[in-house]
Amino acid sequence: MIDNAMLGEIRHDMIKFAHLQLRDESLAEDVVQEALAAALTSANEFAGRSALKTWVFAILRHKIIDQIRLQSRTTNISAMSQEEENLDQTFDRLFQTNAHWSPAARPHDWGDPEESFRQQRFWEIFDICLKKLPENTARVFMMREFLEFETAEVCQELALTTSNCNVILHRARNGLRRCLEKNWFTTGEQPC
């Protein structure tokens, strides 16, 4: 059974990922809410063959793809406005007025903290490296590699030629490789 507390734990990562893809805080929030609602609605379909986070991120991935396709057909007015809401409100709901965890938001067993930290550090370094890429290069890379768009779809959505898309992907992979080699694999996991 999936409960709200489990989903609340991965919500922050979902928002971060959605914002990277959509470049709009409001849209990212909306897409994450839709993904969480879909996860709760179809909780009985979660068979446990994968981690809960993997399953929920797959739902999020589809919601982001739908949003990207919708954006290509419409103008998003909220993307033109400044930030409307602060995520602090969401964060504040995790705690009681005395600054202690709300019972439903309390963290669960963290497993092996050292391995979790190492894995988390890798993704932090990866995220830093991804942010060092030019914005459009990072977007093309994430659409192709994480959202699993076909190259033709990426080209169509972003109005690129196939050869230009392949060059951008090549540059993205090389940039990520160099950054990860410098900041993760050869220097003892220290960020830039």
Description:
This protein is mainly α. The chain has two domains: 1-108, Rna Polymerase Sigma Factor, Chain: A, CATH 1.10.1740; 111-192, Arc Repressor Mutant, subunit A, CATH 1.10.10. The protein contains eight helices and no strands. The chain has helices at residues 4-22, 25-41, 52-73, 88-92, 113-132, 135-145, 151-158, 162-185. Helix 1 packs parallel to helix 3, helix 2 (25-41) packs across helix 3 (52-73) and helix 5 packs across helix 8 (162-185). 18% of the residues are buried. Mean pLDDT is 79; it is low at 79-84.
Keywords:
single chain, 192 residues, mainly alpha, Rna Polymerase Sigma Factor, Chain: A, Arc Repressor Mutant, subunit A, 2 domains
Query: Quick check: average pLDDT?
Result: 79
The number of E-state strands comes to 0
The general outline is globular
Based on the coordinates given, report the CATH architecture of the largest domain. Orthogonal Bundle
Low-confidence stretches: 79-84
**What is the helical fraction, as a range of percent?**
55-70%
Rg over alpha carbons: 18 Å
Task: Kindly estimate the percentage of residues that lie in beta strands according to DSSP.
Answer: under 5%
Straight-line distance between termini: 41 Å
Total of domains = 2
Assigned CATH class of the largest domain? Mainly Alpha
